[in-house]
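agent: user wants the structure for Acid protease from Coemansia reversa. delegating to structure tool.
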Amino acid sequence: MDNPSLSFYLFNTNKGGYGKMILGGYNKKLFEGDPSWAKMHLKGYCEFGDNNVELENAGAAINTGSLLLSMSTMLADLLNKENGVKYNLASQHTVGCNKISLLLPFTLQFSGKKVGASLGFIGNNIPRPLGSLWIIGDVFLRKLYTVYNLSNDGAGFANACKCGY
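agent: tool returned. relaying tokens verbatim.
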């Protein structure tokens, strides 16, 4: 591969559109502005920097294969409780439709790009040496266009276009 990179466009996939994965580059028509770049320090799991998460002494990894935002079980339980989330018999998280407008706002910052998302917290207790690690899934990534550049161990984040390809 001449350009050792791949990119993901997940925006609008839940509204009848579809996402794209591009091997060997990226498509400038699928994002707005220029990507903000972050250096990966754990390439195997796309983990960025030390202690990127201000709520916990934790790193953060992006994962297009995860739907939710995964964090320590203690913090996930606290945020879910504050949002009125209940657990059903199958240990699934539920929130009443009449409470959706009351959910607390939640914003993450990816290399300078602030992204808000709807509810989607799940607990993890990842053991050392990887823990404490937040795993950033599609609930946030669908608002971003992400580029993984393997030649410089970095990832770029840009606001995804609302074009719905």
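agent: one observation worth passing along. The longest helix spans residues 73-82.
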